[in-house]
Amino acid sequence: MPDSIPADRKYDLYSQSMKNDPYPVFDRMRQDDPIFSQPGIDGKTMIWLLTRYDDVELLLRDDDRFVRDQLNALPPEQAHQANELEVLLSNHMLNKDGAEHRRLRNLVSKAFTPARVKALRPRVQSIADRLIDAVQDNGQMDLMADYAFQLPTIVISELLGVPVEDRNRFKAWSYAFVAPALDEAAQARAAQLMQEFVNYLRELFATRRQAPQDDLITALLRAEESGEQLNEAELFSTVVLLIVAGHETTVNLIGNAVLVLLRQPATRQLLQDNPSQMETAIEEFLRYDSPVERSLMRWAAQDAVLGGCQIKKGDVVIGIIGSANRDPEHFDQPETLDLQRGGQRHLAFGHGVHYCLGAPLARLEGEIALNTLLRRLPNLRLAVPESELVWRTVPIFRGLAALPVGWD
User: Which of 53, 146, 271, 342 is the most buried (most CB within 10 A)?
Assistant: First the structure.
């Protein structure tokens, strides 16, 4: 990503320096240009950017005026023409509106009810302890690769029925879905990785059809075979979405929270002494350094006026969640981590009909991961100067590429 701002962009939103500390820029945007249009990462697509809490909350809630499916806002000739591979991988609930969204969401919602998630607690705790067992004698690890990535990936793999030994292959595949591919070489590489993912899933589905198991993939295959609820593209897209979304948010939640705790020894000590407070603390971690920094694109399905700005039908609109969650009009002293903050709902898991289906699971995983880390490695410390840490430049997410830590 370039570190200089292109002439046609007022705000630098894609550079490494921006990712290292985006909040001063978000503060300035909220004050000076709370609803603002500039070219996106491709340098061509004009995007309306919303930075205030009330505006972002409205965008996420108003699924009549702001839609996820381009065809509900644009004539077919103006919408992106998906190739065969994209069709197979993009027909999931996050890209649908109305009845189509509800149908796909209902197919997987039963796997993420609070009761089903609560029943996973012993297994998640076992996984967290086993991951610490594997590194404890080493005195150091990359917390992102060795712990934050592993835990949610193992959990979602077991829920789906994906062989856990394949989990490390998901990292490259997932990156191909969430990282912008701006030139021909990057696009070719992304297409290659996506095709590998499709081939892998095709073999897995064939195996599961021959030997059904008590897992989510088997349940989705049965829905496809009924011919009424799921077609082939929806089957592939839904499984890919669950694998990618099933770990990305939690990975960054854990990493961002650990970094904050390493910066604030008193807060870390408080949670070490009072692990029962972690459930509340998770909400503040989600608000303070939101793992999902920006919403997915939405298209205006009709002309709309927001904050005096005229948004035309077909325009692209994005809500900056990381900015909304630090809006001083909604949160008192938003730049301060306050574990006792209550009654002020953050937008880290979205809002409205597209509210994150896996939120209960992410909360559980974050709580267990952090409490286990503080209990098992109480003198955890950063193993490199903080200035050497590198943040991933994926626009949607906010997370570290690596977090080297050590302990005695």
Answer: 53
Superfamily of domain covering 82-289+338-406: Cytochrome P450 (1.10.630.10)
- How is residue 389 written in tokens? 């840490």
Residue 366 φ/ψ, nearest 5 degrees: -65, -45
- End-to-end alpha carbon distance in the chain: 37
How high is the pLDDT of residue 210?
94
Whether residue 198 contacts residue 236, with contact meaning beta carbons closer than 8 Å, is answered with: yes
CA 223 to chain CA centroid, nearest Å: 26
Cβ neighbours for 228, distance < 8 A, ≥ 6 positions apart: none
SS3 86: helix
- The answer to whether residue 228 scores a pLDDT higher than 90 is no
With a cut of 50, say whether residue 40 has pLDDT above it.
yes
Give the SS3 label for residue 208.
Answer: helix
pLDDT one-digit tens code per residue, 117-132 = 999 999 999 999 999 9
Q: How many CB atoms lie within 10 A of CB 107?
A: 20
The neighbouring-strand residues paired with 38 are: 47
pTM of the model: 0.93
Report yes or no: 88 and 198 within 8 Å, Cβ to Cβ. yes
- 243 pLDDT band, cuts 50/70/90, is confident
148-182 pLDDT, tens digit per residue, is 999 999 999 999 998 888 878 888 888 888 777 77
Mean pLDDT of 126-153: 97
Distances from the Cα of 250 to the Cα of 39, 190, 238, 386, angstroms? 30, 23, 19, 22
Confirm if 201 and 209 have CB atoms less than 8 A apart.
no
Radius of gyration over every alpha carbon of the chain, rounded to an integer in angstroms: 21
Contacts 24+ apart (CB under 8 A), 163-169: 166/200, 169/200
- Go through the chain and tell me how many residues it has: 408
Residue corresponding to tokens 């969640």: 321
- Where in the chain are the domains? 82-289+338-406
Task: List Cβ neighbours of 256 (8 Å cut-off, separation of 6 or more).
Answer: 285, 289, 291, 398, 399, 400
Any residues with CB less than 8 A from the CB of 365 and at least 6 apart, and which?
A: 124, 151, 152, 155, 250, 254
Q: What is the mean pLDDT of the chain?
A: 91
